[in-house]
From TrEMBL:
Segments forming domain Acyltransferase: 61-303
Provenance organism: Cudoniella acicularis
Keywords from the named record: Membrane, Transmembrane, Transmembrane helix
One Pfam match: Acyl_transf_3
Stated name of the protein: Acyltransferase 3 domain-containing protein
Coiled coil: none
C-alpha cells in the first residue's frame, strides 16, 4: 500500500498506479446504424430537449406551418379525389353543395376545402417560394449591398437546378427500376421491352422534362405526372432572380410599381400565371421588409391603424394576452 502522503500529493496518479478502465461493452456498427436511423425517423417534437424552447427561429419560420398545411392538402387531394375515379369523385368533390340537385355533406363550404384544396395549395407553394427566394436579395437591396447581392444571386441560381432536379432523378430512377424489374403497372406509363430501353426512355424524358426553355412536347413526366410543378418552380425561380436583379437599382416606389406591373403583365397580357404568383410573393416580402424598417410608401400609412405586429420569432417569448 502506498503511503498516505504520496496519495495526498498526487503520487498515485504520477506513479502510474491508476489503471485505465475500459468499457466491457462495445457498440456494434449495426447498433450505431439502428440508432442513426431511429434519430432520423423520429419526429422532431419527440426529440425536443428542455432547452430547445429558448432557440431562436428563422425570420421566415412562420411560413413552415403554412407550407406544411398546404402539403397536407395536396396529399389528401390526391388520395381522396383521383384515387376514386371509379365513383367519379371529381364530379362530386369539385362542385358545390347542391350541384345538379346532389347534396353531399362533404361539399359544404369549408369542409370541401380539405378534399379539393390541393389546387390552391399548389399555388400557395408558388407564392411562398417567391417570398422565400427573394427575402435575402431584397434585404441586400434595402441595405445597399449590391456586391453581396450579385454573389447571392449567382450562388442561388447555380444551386437551384441541382436542388430541384437531382433528388427527382435519383428517386425516379429507383422507381423506374422497381417498376420494370417487378412488372408493376401504372396508368401513365407503358413498360419497355428491355431494361436498357427503359433506361433510355427515362433519360430522354428526364432531359426534356428538366430543360427550362423547352417550348413544346409532353409537359408531364410519365413516371410520375405529379412532378409537373418542378419545372414550373424552376421557371418561377428564374423570374424572381432576374426581376430582383433588374429592379435592384430602382428607387423604392419604382421597384414596387415594377413588381405590381409585372404581376399584371403575367396575368392579363402574357400566359404566365405561375410567374404572377412568384412575383406576388416577392411583392409581399418587399412590403414586409419595408414595414419592419418603417419605410413603407406614404400612401400605405393610411392602413397603419390596422397594422398588427407579427408574433416574435423567438419561441422563448410568450405572446401577450
Amino acid at each position: 500500500m502506498l503511503p498516505i502522503n504520496s496519495i495526498s500529493n498526487g503520487g498515485l496518479l504520477e506513479n502510474g498506479q491508476w489503471e485505465e478502465i475500459k468499457p466491457d461493452v462495445q457498440i456494434s456498427t449495426l447498433s450505431r446504424v439502428k440508432s442513426w436511423c431511429t434519430r432520423l425517423a423520429r419526429p422532431a417534437f419527440l426529440t425536443r430537449s428542455k432547452g430547445s424552447n429558448n432557440k431562436s427561429l428563422r425570420k421566415t419560420a412562420w411560413l413552415d406551418g403554412l407550407r406544411g398545411f398546404a402539403a397536407f392538402l395536396v396529399y389528401w387531394h390526391h388520395h381522396q379525389l383521383w384515387a376514386r375515379d371509379g365513383i367519379r369523385a371529381d364530379k362530386i368533390l369539385e362542385n358545390s353543395f347542391g350541384y345538379k340537385d346532389q347534396y353531399y355533406f362533404v361539399c359544404l363550404p369549408g369542409i370541401r376545402t380539405f378534399f379539393t384544396g390541393g389546387h390552391f395549395a399548389v399555388t400557395t407553394f408558388f407564392v411562398i417560394s417567391g417570398y422565400v427566394l427573394s427575402a435575402k436579395p431584397l434585404s441586400l437591396i434595402h441595405a445597399g449591398e449590391y456586391t453581396k447581392l450579385g454573389d447571392n444571386l449567382a450562388s442561388a441560381l447555380f444551386r437551384r437546378w441541382i436542388r430541384l432536379n437531382v433528388p427527382i432523378f435519383v428517386t425516379m430512377f429507383i422507381y423506374m427500376t422497381t417498376l420494370h424489374v417487378f412488372g408493376i403497372w401504372i396508368a401513365s406509363h407503358a413498360h419497355q421491352r428491355t431494361y436498357w430501353d427503359e433506361v433510355w426512355k427515362f433519360y430522354v424524358e428526364f432531359k426534356n422534362f428538366s430543360f427550362v426553355f423547352r417550348t413544346g412536347g409532353e409537359p408531364f413526366f410519365s413516371y410520375d405526372v405529379h412532378l409537373w410543378s418542378i419545372p414550373v418552380e424552376f421557371r418561377g425561380s428564374i423570374a424572381i432572380y432576374t426581376s430582383v436583379l433588374a429592379f435592384s437599382r430602382c428607387t423604392r416606389n419604382a421597384r414596387l410599381a415594377c413588381e405590381v406591373g409585372l404581376i399584371y403583365y403575367f396575368i392579363y397580357i402574357a400566359d404566365g400565371w405561375f410567374c404572377a404568383l412568384f412575383t406576388g410573393g416577392m411583392l409581399l416580402c418587399d412590403l414586409d421588409l419595408l414595414s419592419e424598417s418603417d419605410n413603407l410608401p406614404s400612401f400605405l400609412t393610411i392602413l397603419s391603424p390596422f397594422k398588427k405586429s407579427r408574433p416574435s420569432t423567438s419561441s422563448s417569448q410568450s405572446p401577450s394576452t
